[in-house]
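PT: before anyone asks, these are the final sequences, not the draft ones from last week. 831 residues across everything. Please model them as a single complex and drop the result in this thread when it's through.
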Amino acid sequence: MAQDASLSSFQESEWEVILPVLYRDRAVQNVEEERIRKLKTRLQQLRWRGAKRGGQEYAEKSCARCRRALGLLLNRGAVCQGCSHRVCSECRVFPGRTRVWRCTVCYEGRNVRIKTGEWFFEERAKKFPTEGRQETAGARLLQSYQELSKISVVPPTPPPLSESWCSSSPGRLQELSQPRGFNKSVENLFLSVTTHMKKLSKSQNDVTSDKQLLSTSPEQGTGRPERRSQSDTAINVTARKISAPDILQSLSPESPKRPANPVLKQENLLSHPTPGPLFSGGSRQGSLISINSACTEIGNFDNADVTGEVELALRYCFKTRSLEVCIKSCRNLAYGEERKKKCNPYVKTYLLPDRSSQGKRKTGVQKNTVDPTFQETLKYQVEPAQLATRRLQVSVWHLGTLARRVFLGEVIIPLASWDFGDSTTQAFRWHPLRAKAEKHEDSSSPNHGELTVRAKLVLPAGTSKLQEAQEGTGEEPSCDGQLCLVVLGAQNLPVRSDGTLNSFVKGCLTLPDKQKLRLKSPVLKKQACPQWKHSFVFNGVSPAQLRQSSLELTVWDQAAFGVSDRLLGEARLGSREDPAGGAGSGSHSKLQWQKVLSSPNLWTDMTLVLH
Amino acid sequence: MASATDSRYGQKESSDQNFDYMFKILIIGNSSVGKTSFLFRYADDSFTPAFVSTVGIDFKVKTIYRNDKRIKLQIWDTAGQERYRTITTAYYRGAMGFILMYDITNEESFNAVQDWSTQIKTYSWDNAQVLLVGNKCDMEDERVVSSERGRQLADHLGFEFFEASAKDNINVKQTFERLVDVICEKMSESLDTADPAVTGAKQGPQLTDQQAPPHQDCAC
Ligand SMILES: Nc1nc2c(ncn2[C@@H]2O[C@H](COP(=O)(O)OP(=O)(O)OP(=O)(O)O)[C@@H](O)[C@H]2O)c(=O)[nH]1
Ligand SMILES: [Mg+2]
Ligand SMILES: [Zn+2]
Ligand SMILES: [Zn+2]
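LR: through. Structure below.
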């Protein structure tokens, strides 16, 4: 077959460019499937509301949707032309400007067919009846590819054994054995590709040089890296979108260019109170920036000598639970390109420790100025309790030609001590810009992601007097305290080469008498940013005991068939000093932990850095 | 006695899907006609004169606001080079609409349009919406394919036609928006035929009051 030859002639270097695209696509698909699942669930719920309930007689004269009784003369109801059910006047929807109506279920059914793309799959099935709806071309390519090439292609860092085991789990096998309309020969082609590649990687020396040629590092002067819409590193970023923590729901920055009816827009924000799509932001406002900023996070950017200041104000709106960062202007910035005296500055913010693209906000880019005025407000939806654990990173960048970025300076504002109630702190202030501060922190203790947890010490009424508990001398006040810990989720975990994890969390509370209480969360499959939302409850512990206890939380990637699970990272809370932990983060979580113990019956949110 | 229990923690799910629906669009055409440039112009408003031929496939996601709906577009940029054909054609089946591109300064790319169209017919669904785009209309001096020929071919194939320039940002946005609109139209049709009660009584995402784009052909 002619195609066979073309495919098997692909070089490893080419696959290195294609695979990240497939992974990114899969992340997009995952989000999409989740959305569709929700839409369908909602429709189902709507149907159930009208369904005949157990024991209740199906009165002929009642609305098929809300079960309200219908009268003989007044409020008789009318028959829906979609489903022929009689419904009351409340349960009709008039779509658009027409007088034709549908009952709520029919209307929603139609909506769901639009929103899920079902209409397309139905149409397509007329031509390709065997085509499944979910599996995209990319998913299939990826599947075949992974199935066959793991050993030779995937870099050896993640345990290749466990991966190949996982992928040959029964579910996967079944999927593979039913290629559902997928051109069988293409799968075979992949087989030949991979065998070919194995040979390549063993014998051919020029593979490495090819690699360089195709390398996705934007530092290479060639156009290619910039042209790729996402670098390799962006895979995780993308995947992260699948399950962003609820506690940090972003409001997409205002985009004045969007021709949105403000009312409608508001409505949409309310019904989907969540971040704007990652790659787009919904409008032109610098998706170029978002696309490459994954690179800037890992150090692929130029540095200018840092000068100047940024003027900003911080407000927290308790009503909407949003942090507003008003970026007014900068002055006296360094030139992004010193020789050409060029500077196109923009400002980017993160609420550290969240460095995911979810938590990124940017202003527009100003052209040719070192004293730009932005007047833009960047918003973060964040719970007040979360604020104390965050630091606002405000960095200024120059956007050069070919999307090259130059770092112009940053300021980091810890929010723990920020008084959002005080109006004087809400005024605009100038903050001097500094050089990148965090490099050393990141390199000295490798960050293995962050774990967000929420903890509460539950004490029965009467024993919550702190002094009593704190002393712990003589008679123990009570032993029936309870430590509740909700493991919300994790992000920035070291994912497998396919961009996902089958992760779970273990909690181990070591009491002063060395007794260990162990708990484990369920495994969340195939997610890069798992949201377990699982709670660990340690019963019968007193505050005094807890003060001398330590709680160790470890995140694992599950391996199938007895191959040992991979430890992704750990965080420790409690009395024992963590010898390995970085000083900064260690002391911070220590403070948080003390807060949990000293404020019984109150939830404390913590973001723990995994080591 | 100290003990430990696990329990599920119910919390409201975060929905991070701030859009109404998702369309998948494929850009095809010979190598170097400007597919990647066209997409970058649209998604990032950027253009670079350097030519980096696409390896395999790539995509971008952009959410637009159209007809009171947020539509998430997943736009696939395919490699024009023959060697990637197996991969790129695998994506035809998932696409609701196509942008078939040629270069007005390159006769060969225009002659290939018929073949590309056949590929669509072979690999895609029957109602695939296709826009024919003659790119690089900023290079009037080097033009070898007249607007007229472009339009005639489009008529012949049953596609809509635009001349555009990724470089000068001419008709780029219009092309995508028109494609979105025609997909929406197809969608309404498909839904209405499935629901006989509304045939004739248009509803939902109707675009009848959508006026034609300002200038379909290049003004330069
Ligand atoms: N003058 C002019 N040049 C353009 C235009 N669009 C693209 N180009 C140039 O044409 C060359 C090819 O553009 P690409 O977008 O990479 O071509 P492609 O169709 O993606 O090519 P493949 O990836 O190989 O399929 C580049 O040098 C672009 O700068 C345009 O509208 N006007
Ligand atoms: Mg290209
Ligand atoms: Zn009713
Ligand atoms: Zn009905």
